[in-house]
Amino acid sequence: MSSATSVSASAMAATSSAAAAAAPPCRLLGSGQAHLRLPPPAASGRRRLLLRCSASGGNNGKGGGGDGSDPILEERRRRRQAELAARIASGEFTAQGPAWIAPLAAGLAKLGRPGELAAALLTKVAGGGGPEIPQAVGSMSAVTGQAFFIPLYDLFLAYGGIFRLNFGPKSFLIVSDPAIAKHILRDNSKAYSKGILAEILEFVMGTGLIPADGEIWRVRRRAIVPAMHQKYVTAMISLFGEASDRLCQKLDKAASDGEDVEMESLFSRLTLDVIGKAVFNYDFDSLSYDNGIVEAVYVTLREAEMRSTSPIPTWEIPIWKDISPRQKKVNEALALINKTLDELIDICKRLVEEEDLQFHEEYMNEQDPSILHFLLASGDDVSSKQLRDDLMTMLIAGHETSAAVLTWTFYLLSKYPNVMAKLQDEADTVLGDRLPTIEDVKKLKYTTRVINESLRLYPQPPVLIRRSIEEDTLGGYPIGRGEDIFISVWNLHRCPKHWDDADVFNPERWPLDGPNPNETNQNFSYLPFGGGPRKCVGDMFATFETVVATAMLVRRFDFQMAPGAPPVEMTTGATIHTTEGLKMTVTRRTKPPVIPNLEMKVISDSPENMSSTTSMPVSAASIASGEDQQGQLSREKFSGHSPEMMASGFSSISSRRLPSMNVDARHRKGQSGRRGVRRLAGGILLGPGHVAVDKPDHPDLWFGTEYRPAGR
Ligand code: HEM
């Protein structure tokens, strides 16, 4: 859910251009350091702290990607943290509140009801009396010039699970405590809205699922969640494989030409291509071309990010918003996207009308398994505008998040060659040289753990945004309505109390035979997809997508940071971006081919077997020889490819032709004339060349939200 992230930054930024001016002056302490003034935790409510907060990252996060792998940066970070802790402990930053408050308040309280009220007001204003949320008072310069969530980490270490961050008239509650996060996201979620997030994203997502609140959200979530059923996600595996294969071909060329590649933008294109097909059956083909619509999508995304981080909301200034060239470009981009979406909706409506429709819970059209098709086929009674908002929301939600996960995963892999080697071993053994199936994905357990761990270190988004719409109590502190809250997933995921070696990329921390880590089994210390009723609807989709792409890329290539590549630092956009891209040298792997003994689904060509899939072990060696173990597939089926080429490991030959030819044969024999869902025993035919099994039998690999709205 990409754009959530940014808004947090922006939320501070956008609301506080004035705030920055009104805030206490930020006394520079030296390069990159700024003061933040903090009163102490509740227990010592009358005291105030003056805290030095490093504006250069001050923690595990800045430079080197914050993964703990760069010893110099690590050492610097440790020293900064130790210094900060020692100074806080010494009381250097602590100032006593005025000593006259308590006696004066006591005197006032003796004057009856009005006096009591005045005493309460005085103690509140002066910071005395009952429990008060610790406060950090600062200027924008303390949090700008770097990814905004980084200084929040220092403050969290100093102040703990909940504190208030004040910028002039604006304040935010920063939550980094799992129990409080659970309360807001799950246990009392009705008391919170999306607040600033909805305001900033309105121009692009309207009342789509991410910004929507209340009844609109409830109705739309109930319509959309069923579209992402297990069969749909299973069907998407071949889409992920094909898109990743196109990326491999691009990298192949770069490897041959000896050119370095900027992986962040390639991952962005990969996931755009995937999500376009998955959500509304549109092939952006952005890995191949830069056409108008691809550019329009990027213009819109960048605008959302700009709005999220801009201190001045220029897009709201009367007249300027109509004449600014930037806004004109954004409006044109939005108009093009809307027109395209309207056309796609019309085409899909026609298809549904012509279809011999038998709608059921796991309905899926094999020619067009998209979410849009499901929604229209389900008879979803919705306006075209709402449908467009939903599609646009999912396009954005599912695009930059997955791209960011892949970017930071590959960055981490370049820093941890031992993890890369293990990953490659697994990919070799499980995949051989074919497109992954759902069965393969279930076996890619280490790859899944790598993604789990990458999401721990680089959560996308790093902060979740809420606004209280009722009074509540958080961590023992009463809070009023209208509080803007940032739940720092970054802090939760790197909390030194909860995680051993919190900054170290260690996929082994998640046992291979253990359950897939999620917010429930980690008790809200790990929230890669949020939690509660607003949990990501694309969690399974995204995990499979990133697992497939990672496995396919590493089995074919080695990845290293390109010589002379700029340092990889973080900045906040819709998700965590790199500041200057992820420039890598990609080399084709020279490993000898692995000869695994794999279980592959093979569908016999014979008419008797048309309606069933049979599973038989097929070794890579037999694939290489052009035969399966029953000798059913002859060399001619691999026409044009010599056995030597077949055996040469990760060549351009793909043994995925093996099952696909059988499926094609079924098409030729006229078994697929009827429109609608065709069920095969144990599998579903998705189109030429694609077979996906019906239900995976490893529940731990189904990450599905256990939280569905009532009525599902
Ligand atoms: C690795 C990739 C992804 C990550 C890390 C991710 C993360 C998240 C998170 C943390 C939330 C909760 C936001 C909040 O509570 O404020 C969320 C919500 C959402 N995500 Fe994802 N997401 C990913 C991929 C996807 C994909 C592929 C889709 C769609 C196909 C999607 C659709 C959504 C939607 C619609 C919501 C809003 C749900 C609601 O409010 O009811 N996400 N996502």
UniProtKB/TrEMBL annotation:
Cellular component terms (Gene Ontology): chloroplast
Membership in a protein family: Belongs to the cytochrome P450 family.
Protein name: Cytochrome P450
Any matching Pfam family: p450
Binding-site positions, heme: 536
Gene3D superfamilies: Cytochrome P450 (1.10.630.10)
UniProt region (Disordered), positions on chain: 53-73
Biased composition (Gly residues): 58-68
Names of required cofactors: heme
Molecular-function annotations in GO: beta-carotene 3-hydroxylase activity; heme binding; iron ion binding; oxidoreductase activity, acting on paired donors, with incorporation or reduction of molecular oxygen
